[in-house]
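Spend some time on the protein that follows and explain the fold to me:
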Amino acid sequence: MDEKFRNFLYDPTMPKAKKIAGITEFCDGAGFDKITKSFLCVTAENGRLKETSKILGCLEEYSLKAAGQVKATVTSAFPLNEDQLTRLTGLIKKKLDDPEDELTVETKVDSKLVGGFTVAMGEDFYDLSLMTRLRHMENELAKPLR
């Protein structure tokens, strides 16, 4: 999304009517479907434009579930090799509510994790990163002695 348009949409001082007019003009110019335009206008009217990405993510999740598909996002500190990804995919499949569901695994790399990985799958989130373990240890060490 264009940075200027994003700022326009997310600006809390911008009147809702002006945002809705801008969204309508944008959607008409881009040839968006009427239902998409209505969704964005209602989102703007309710002051929830910043939540659009989350809303669309949930919609995607429900659509995939209805089609018997599940998407998992694995974020690791370093790129996973083929063997690691295959083993991890097998473990994730065991966590599916319906073993018949088709699993799609998307991978990302985030060096801030230091080591390990996280898995986001629907509402489930598994954090096996070294950074989280270090934070827990830091919090424990910061507690006063008894």
